Amino acid sequence: MCRLFGMHAGRTPRRATFWLLSAPDSLAEQSHRMPDGTGLGVFGLDGRPVLDKQPLAAYDDPAFATEAKDLASTTFVAHVRYATTGPVGPENTHPFEQDGRLLAHNGVVEDLDRLEDRLRELEAMSLVQGQTDSERVFALITAEARRNGGDVGAAITAALTWIADNLTLYAVNLILTTPTELWAVRYPDTHELHVLELPGRGGLDPLSHATHRISARSEELGGQRSVVVASEPMTDDPGWRLMDSGEVLHVGPDLDVHSSRPLPAHPAHLEAVGDLDRDTAIAQHPGGHEGLAAAQPDHD
Q1: Per the domain annotation, does 300 fall within a domain?
Q2: Average pLDDT, stretch 160-177?
Q3: According to the per-residue pLDDT averaged within each range, which of 140-144, 213-217, 226-230 is highest?
Q4: Range of the domain at 92
Q5: Which end of the chain has fewer CB atoms surrounding its CB within 10 Å, N or C?
C-alpha cells in the first residue's frame, strides 16, 4: 500500500532531512514492499515547486537510498509508491505538480474513461502526462480550482463529490500542498490517515520519526510548531489522531488547523477489496501479499 507523508512548518522555511526507503533498520523490507517509486515535494524560497522523485526502489538506487535530502520549505509532501494504475516510470511517480501545487494520493479510482471524459469537458485533459488514476484525480481538482477562482478547498470538495457520485472507487486519500497551505483528505475509511499537531517547545532534541514504511527526520522542528499528516503514526506520541472518514483537513499559513466533512457519507459505487484484481488488492493491503492472505483465508 502506498504511504503518504505531509508536513506544514508555518511561515518560516525550515530545513528538514527526509529519508525515503533508506532507514538503516528497515531498508530491505521497505524497498521490497514499496518498489515502484519514491518522491519528495517542497517549495523553494521563490514559491516554486521542487520535486525529487525516482521510479525506483531503494535496492535499485543506492545513491538515493543513502543520500540525505536537505531542503528548506514551509510545506512538504512525500510518497512511497506501490503501483496499481500505470506502469513504473517518472511520469507516474508521486508527487505530481499542477498549477504550482503538489499532490500525492493513496487509493484506487476506476472508470477512468468517464473521468477523462469529464476532464475533456472541463478542458483539463492536457494536465495529465502519465497513466495513473492519481494524476487524473489531481487534474479534476485543478480544473475545479480554475473554475472557481482558485479556492482549493472548494475544488477538492467539488472534485471528490463528483468522483464519489459517478465513479467506482476503493479509496481517495490525498495530501495537497502549496507554499503556504496543506490539505489532507481521508475518504472513505478504507485506508488510515493520521494527523499530529506539534506545539513546539524550546530545547527539545531533533524530531525523529520512523516506521518500516517511511521515515523522516527534522533537525529544526523539535522546538517549532508544525503539523504532520501520515498514513500511520510515525512515533509513539499520544497526540496522533486518526482522521475521520470523509474528513478534509486544512492547515493554513499560521498552522491554524480546520477540519470539515463536506463529502458524501458513502460513495455511490464503493469497491470492496474482494472486487479488486489480485495484484491491486495486494498493493492496497497494508500487509501486502501476506496480510491479504491472512485477511482473506481460502475456504474449501
Answers
A1: no
A2: 97
A3: 140-144
A4: 3-295
A5: C
Give the CATH number, domain containing residue 230: 3.60.20.10
Please report, as a single letter, which amino acid is at residue 285.
H
pTM for the model: 0.81
Q: What pLDDT, in 10s, does the model give residues 41-85?
A: 889 989 999 887 665 543 454 433 433 346 678 999 887 755 445
Q: Given this model, what pLDDT does residue 212 score?
A: 52
The reply to whether 181 falls in a domain is yes
Does residue 26 lie within any of the structural domains? yes
